[in-house]
Amino acid sequence: MAERKAWLYLEDGTVMEGRGFGGTSRRGGEVVFTTAMNGYPESLTDPSYLGQILIITHPLVGNYGVPSPKFLNGRLLNFEAEMISVEGLIVSELTEGSNYEERKSLESWFMESNVPGLSGIDTRELVKKIRDNGVMRGIISQEKLYQPLAEFASQEPLCLVKKASVSQPIEYAGSRRGNIVIVDLGAKQGIVNCLADTGYTIVKVPYDSDENRIMNYDPVGIVYSNGPGNPNELKRQAEELSKLLERNIPTLGICLGHQVAVLALGGEVEKMKYGHRAINKAVLERGSGRSYITTHNHGYAASGKGIDKSDVWFVSPDDGIIEGLRRGNLMTTQFHPEARPGPRDTEFVFGLFEKMIENARHP
Amino acid sequence: MQDTLKKILIIGSGGIKIAEAAEFDYSGSQALKALREEGIESVIVNPNIATIQTSKNMADRIYLLPVTGEFIEKVIEKERPDGIMVGFGGQSALNAGVDLYKKGVLERYNVRILGTDIKKVEIALSRERFKNRMKELGITVPPSISASSQEEAVRGAKTLRYPIMIRASFSLGGRGSVIARNEKELVEGLDKAFAQSGTGEILLEEHLRGWKEIEYEVVRDRLGNCAVTACIENLDPMGIHTGESMVVTPPQTLNDNDYQNMRSVAIRVAEDMKLVGECNVQFALNPSNGEFCVIETNPRMSRSSALASKATGYPLAYVSAKLALGYSLYEIKNTVSGSTTACFEPSLDYVTIKAARWDMEKFDGISRSLGTEMKSTGEIMSVGRGLEEAMQKAVRMLDIGEPGLVGGKIYGSIDLDTTDVLSALEEKMPYWFLYAARAMRDGIGTEELHEITHVDRFFLKKIEKVVRFYESNKGKKLEGEDADMARRLGFSESQLSIESAMPKIKRIDTVAGEWPADTNYLYSTFNGSTSDSAPDKRGGVLVVGAGGFRIGTSLEFDWSTVSLVRGFGGMRRSAVLNCNPETVSTDWDEIGELYFDEITEDTVAKIYSYGKFDNVALFTAGQAGNNIATGLERRGVKIYGSSANAIDTAEDREKFSRLAESIGIRQPDWIVAVSAAEAEKFADSVGFPVIIRPSYVLSGSAMKRVNNKEELHMYIRSAAEVSKKHPVVISKYLDNSIEAELDCAADSKNVIGIGMTHIEEAGVHSGDATIVTPCTISAYGIMKEVALRLTNEMAIRGPFNIQFVVNGNDVYVIELNLRASRSMPYSSKAVGINLIEHAITGIDGAFDFNGFHEPEHGAYLVKSPQFSWSQLRGAYPHLGPEMRSTGEVAAFGKTIDDALIKSWLGATPNMVPKSKVLVYGVSNVHNLEVAARTLGSENTLTLSGAAIDDAATISADEAVRMMRRREIGLVATDGDVRGIDYTVRRAAADLNTPLVLNGKLAERLAGAMSAEEITCMEMSEYS
User: Fold this and answer.
1) Does the distance separating the beta carbons of B347 and A293 come in below 8 Å?
2) Of the candidates B223, B224, B260, which has its C-beta nearest A344's C-beta?
3) Lower Cβ count inside 10 Å, N or C end of chain B?
4) Alpha carbon of B665 to those of A2, A302, B294, B812: distances in Å?
5) Shortest Cα distance from B517 to chain A (angstroms)?
6) Ordered domains of chain B (ranges, CATH)
7) ipTM value for the complex
8) pLDDT digits over B181-209, tens only?
9) Which domains are seen in chain A, by residue range?
């Protein structure tokens, strides 16, 4: 394939030239980075990245290609969604793969999906810029832009959660009586799969489902999923969750779902300078002295304002961010217990949730 | 932390041997640092004199004693430590620790084992118990059986499929392990495996041919918190020892599912042994379906953990020591970022490649094929932001005369055809990547090469990219984007004609840039557009390290490098450039500004210019440093210490001879011969024996002592082509002479120095000799005079070493080394000073004394060589003018005997014989006979064909049989009689029977074995 040039424009005026790959459309979004060194098929399909251009800090990306999708009982197993979620990808070097599961190269996947990529970029330089200045919007373009700032102005804010969520309920039948309802804010497939392992029927309902709609399923458990965008735009979801919490149904919030829960409990969620996007971060369990290595993908966080200290379950030892809450039958994690990509050290959260459901059903 | 701990004993790993090198100096030093931070008194036992951990300001109490239960017990009795750390001195320390535990010594003296419970460690070290435990946990292991006898092994093997891997328990560097393709090979391999097994137990395991080898480094605290701080992917498949493999960090070809599957199991393994500290878990991964097995775990610091620390910036040994003291992971700071904790898993925004270096040409008869036993003597690590870049840098760092993957000797050799190249790959010759590149040049595809090498296609394609680029651009002058691409692919300016450019300097920060880091742990890359930061200071000294270890250049130069940086203290800016991941000099915590990069003229010059340094110190870099001195000076680099001109004079035999003559210094006669006839004529005129070597090879290599005309002809025919282009240097061998040395530092006029004498006669390489200090030579005054004259004549500033041959009052100079020497840590510690610190005074100004000053000796210090014969399967153990030892150990004593016996016992596998002694030889016969008499004729046997008087004669076969039955506890011999005793010496090496290879040493040792007093004192008590 002939090499073509492409450019990244940042809203602070930075321009970086690299080699374009994949789709040729001009795409814009918030430019964020992940320090995960592998697991790019999972990261790139993670719906939390909707509306974002992703930088992968490891310099070689594409080393094991892209596998064919695998399904079990209608559930996708090896991607986090059926489509690429990111607006664009920035790497230092795009590589060709070599792996027993590889069905196509990363490059052809981006080509087929018409998502643009940019390689040959000093990603470390870019990351440092974001680290120092905070996240910025950016545009990947195949041609030189003479007035990039005008382009930023014309970008409309999207309701990303709406885009990420199912529009109609989807059911994955289980072997056990009872429904776990996922309020789909952009749920990763890994969450669905981990919950499905409990044996209950999993129902994904749209992001704007209210209390009644959720209760129609007579859920044994409710999950507020991860998802893209600003949690403070989800005031309605927080209100519905407050109502649901009064019913004391076992409820799990993950990532964005955790943030909605923070809002429901009267806490505050603020935008971080450049977020946590990595698979190497520790969280500390309050009181037990235990720490776990976890997967993170969030640009907003609860610093603890408005939160009852006794509700805190996990914190980050690095910056003190609230990493999880536990109160009654509610438990939440800012990190991703389903990992994908990342360490599975906190998969036990799903086990605790299952136990909570069982205790609630057979007190 | 456990506040009851006031004093802790750390066990070191002893002399450097293949598979136990500087990584344990690094680990131990980090542990000592952790103890110091806690205000805990530290005691170290390690006979390795060249280590940093036995230098000032590291441990509070230093014992230069053998790492054996017996000696450590004496230290415990004296020091009464509260706790002991056995995980920082490799397999040697761990075995000694297990021994002390089993004998009840630790319990008796109430010494707590810090870190992982020793009972759990024992399970991990016993291959059978470990496998059984894994099976109980439902973790897959390769099909295997264990055996404790030959018969049991042969019977058991019938239940397995060949090829079968034989593995020994509690052994080091894969010692005793081999792959057998059939029963015949199995039987052949069993002997050695049983001999090398610490427990008399071996394991037979189905060999997973073509599977990948993956390693994980796990840390765990006492509360059960775990982090997997590194994963290492071997490019070489299963069956090649990981110490030999080219490895990459982070892993490049694993998808998240496979990566996490193994990671989770690694944590379960650590969890099951209730690990407190660090362990390494090795996996075999089937590259066609992701199926995997656990192979083994090492519940201690290892070579891999040192590599993982350097590759990731996560200081495993330091963290491990803190964990052993009772801290939890999140209570320990991330020393690189300074703002986060040790409870995380490093993320790398670069790749590192580790490659091994072999010195096999020094050993006759050795099998060069790589396998499950480690044979390499050193390693290097390269860092880059592209794999091609990192691989090409790695090749240059090896310093084997290859300019990169392509364009060098193997790539261009007309003596090799494609068939040779493919068979080199099939036979697993060292440096497969160079052969692979050559094969690609010859048109062999990656698929075929994958079939032969089982190296993942991903890496082969990377090599292919380099080959393609080279083939389409060689001979061209590359500019602009082409030059840029060449540099990104790691080509050097000498490999292709590329316009010169400066690389970008980036930081290793453990977090891929996510958090700011202050640590100046740096590398250069052409895959980037900006440097992380411009150096905030200018001036100071760039100190160049010695790179990967090889025979003759080892830990001693690391000691010099670190000593120099410490010597500057906070007074002056200094930075280190080095590429050896094992060492203390590449510890960013020790070195404030560290460039982990190539030690080539080009890179040194570029980093010198980037860092705006005043000077470059090369004397710390060993011979490699001297080799680039002239080139660097020509490029305008200012050398710290003696001038490039002085270095050149010392290195150039002719120039040096002229100078020596002009100031009345004697040298043994020598000439450069360009024909066989000329060589013969010289030998005739001075008389045999003579020492001969090719002049184009660095000192010590391919050097031989030639006793008569026949041998001379043989040498000229076989070993070297003699011509104008390839002359040989022949020098008179001074029979019955002693060799002596001076280690010095000078200020261009005055000299501080320490004298040493060799026990073996001249002709045995100084690196292989047993050395005594203070100097025992009557003509010592002449040696000092020589040092002063040379200093004044050459305006020597800084460290240097002179080697002498002494015959009565005749003193001849053989060599002047204008650099730090191998023996400097030894000579320095003998008198309680640091010559490198004095060198700084000498270079910067002047000493406060006139003439030659030798500090006072408080006791004798004897240094013994540590050989790795057992690791070098097939090599014939003997001594000569070529160096073959891999390390050294030393001990103090009130008498020479007191020091000698402990020093000798400090080298493995030396032990005082409890059974018969075999003494024989055809040279130094008188000494051998005295040795035999001293040891008692009734205990002595001798070998037919090289028999000595007054001892019962046995055949070589009988000797081998007796050794196998452990009925011979020592073999003492001399010279080279391989026609008679090859099997005997080999069996001794393979069966861990102590070998003394020189008659004079045998005589002294025999006396020392019955020494009346063996002292076990702390280093300072001897002064």
Assistant:
1) no
2) B260
3) N
4) 70, 80, 63, 7
5) 11
6) 7-114 (3.40.50.20), 125-345 (3.30.470.20), 353-498 (1.10.1030.10), 504-640 (3.40.50.20), 669-732 (3.30.1490.20), 738-858 (3.30.470.20), 910-1009 (3.40.50.1380)
7) 0.97
8) 888 889 888 887 887 776 778 889 899 99
9) 4-156 (3.50.30.20), 161-361 (3.40.50.880)
